[in-house]
Write a structure and sequence with these properties.
Length: 75
């Protein structure tokens, strides 16, 4: 568990700020060109793939510790 003032409270504050910005946003009448939309999609895809790789490696590390522990106890 992170200590007070760690990453989790900062992320929570950022999330609340983004939600508040969307709630009070007005019409921008702005144009997003196709290349910007493509860049946003690429960033989202890269973030998702990165999250999945880190998640799988973390799970593999946890299960690896369990497997090593079982092998040591069998000896």
């Amino acid at each position: 568990m992170p200590s007070r003032g760690g990453v989790v409270p900062a992320a929570r504050t950022l999330g609340l700020a983004v939600m508040l910005a969307f709630l009070v946003a007005r019409n921008a009448y702005a144009y997003i060109d196709p290349s910007t939309g493509s860049l946003v999609l690429q960033l989202l895809a890269a973030g998702f793939v990165t999250f999945m790789v880190v998640f799988r490696k973390s799970i593999a590390r946890i299960t690896g510790f369990r497997r090593r522990g079982k092998r040591d106890s069998d000896k």
